[in-house]
Amino acid sequence: MIFNLKDITMKNIVFSAGEVEGVIHYCNKILDDAIQHYGEEAQYNKTIEECAELIVAIRQFIDTQGIKCSSEGVASEIADVIIMALQAAKMIGIPMVVSEIDRKLDRLNNRIVKENYRLKADTEDPRLTKIGLPTT
After folding, report:
1. How far apart are CA 106 and CA 103, in angstroms?
2. Phi, psi (5° rounding) for residue 35?
3. What pTM value is reported for the model?
C-alpha cells in the first residue's frame, strides 16, 4: 500500500499518526456529508464540472505563462478536483481506487526505469540501437 500515515510530512512539519487520523476522520465526515446532502449523481456531475475547470485553468496557465490563470488559480482547481475525486472514490469504493493507484504508480515507475535505461544505453553505446532496442 502506498499510504503510510506515520510518514506524512508537510513543509518540514511531521504530523503524528494520531493527528493525521484526526484530519482524515474530519475530511471523511465532510465528504460523506456532501455525498448524502447533494446525492451521488449530483456529486458525479460536479466532479465532471471541476475536472473541466481544471483543464481550462491549466491550458490558460500554459498558454499565457500564468497571466490569464495564475499558479494559485491552478492550485485552487486542483484542490476542487481532489475533493470531488475523493468523493467519487468513496462512492465507487476506496479499496478499488487504491488498488488502481498502486497499479498505475507501479506502471509509471516501470516506464521511468525503462526510459532511463534506454537513455543510458543510447548515450553509452549507440550501437545498441542497431540491434533493435527502441530509442526514446
Report:
1. 5
2. -60, -45
3. 0.73
Listed by start position, the domains of the chain span 1-92, 93-136
Q: What is the DSSP letter of 64?
A: T
- For residue 51 the three cell numbers come to 475536472
Cα-based angle 91, 78, 30 (whole degrees, multiple of 5): 45
For residue 108, report the phi and psi dihedrals to the nearest 5 degrees.
-60, -45
11-45 pLDDT per residue, tens: 555 667 777 788 888 999 999 999 999 999 999 99
Q: How far apart are CA 57 and CA 68, in angstroms?
A: 9
Output phi, psi for 81, to 5 deg. -65, -40
- The rounded radius of gyration (Å) of the Cα atoms in the chain is 21
Q: Please state, in angstroms and rounded to a whole number, the distance separating the CA atoms of residues 48 and 73.
A: 18
d(CA 30, CA 24): 10
85 neighbors 100 (Cβ within 8 angstroms): no
